[in-house]
Amino acid sequence: MASQASIPPTLSALQAFTQSQTPRPPDLLREPYYYHLALQVLHNLQHQHDWTSLKIHTHSPLTAENSALLPRPLITGLPPRRIYVHPDEQIGMLKAGVKEEDVDVEREWVLPTHLKEKWSLRRFAEIFDAVSETPPGMPQGDQEDEVKSLQKEEDEKRKGGKRVLLATVSDDSTVVYYIVHDGIVKPRQN
């Protein structure tokens, strides 16, 4: 009778996804742990929150030909609905009678972190210094209406300046999201 101990257990969906998406050779990354954390958040955004056009970025879009590495991998993508409405936009929308559901979505930066990490203003400043106000466009081959939306974003400066969606992963794989701005932003009207 063959021993059951020699048969490895099957991989979970997240483990299989992580293994299939890790770049080879892994030494192309500063810290492979951060890349795997980004994959876990990307998986959560795609399968739990219905985000589209997701991409992991390891190089800064601000340098010539993306030559500088980011302090850690970041994700960009399109949420199913708008994540943040600037207070000035909110006032204009209320006056015009526009509902938040009718506003075009904006491509967002997502910063994957772990709950046990210690963050300082300096670490956040390193992230904000390495990213553009509006995340770079989608890879080739995605839907045309999303491309038009991105071109519209590039034409209009984003209100409120740079922001990232801080994705904090706990030990039990729960992911919590917070909006973090670069600098001081006027509070929302209720």
Mean pLDDT across all amino acids: 80
Report how far apart the termini are. Answer: 69 Å
For the secondary structure, the number of strands is 5
The chain-level structural class is: alpha+beta
Give me the side-by-side strand order of the main sheet. Answer: 1-2-3-4-5
| Number of continuous helical runs | 5
- How would a textbook summarize the main sheet? 5 strands, mixed
Q: Helix proportion of residues, in percent?
A: 25-40%
- Residue ranges: pLDDT <50 for 5 or more in a row? 139-144
Shape: globular
The secondary-structure element order is HHEEHEHHEE
Features:
single chain, 190 residues, alpha+beta, 5 strands, globular
General description of the model:
This protein is α+β, with helices and mostly antiparallel strands. Helix content is 31%, strand content 21%. It contains five helices and five strands. The protein has helices spanning 13-21, 32-48, 87-96, 121-130, 144-155; strands at residues 52-59, 69-78, 108-114, 163-169, 175-181. It has a five-stranded mixed sheet, with helices on both faces. The radius of gyration is 19 Å and the shape is globular.
What is this structure's SSE topology?
Blueprint (H helix, E strand, L loop, with lengths): L12 H9 L10 H17 L3 E8 L9 E10 L8 H10 L11 E7 L6 H10 L13 H12 L7 E7 L5 E7 L9
Helix pairs in contact: 1-2
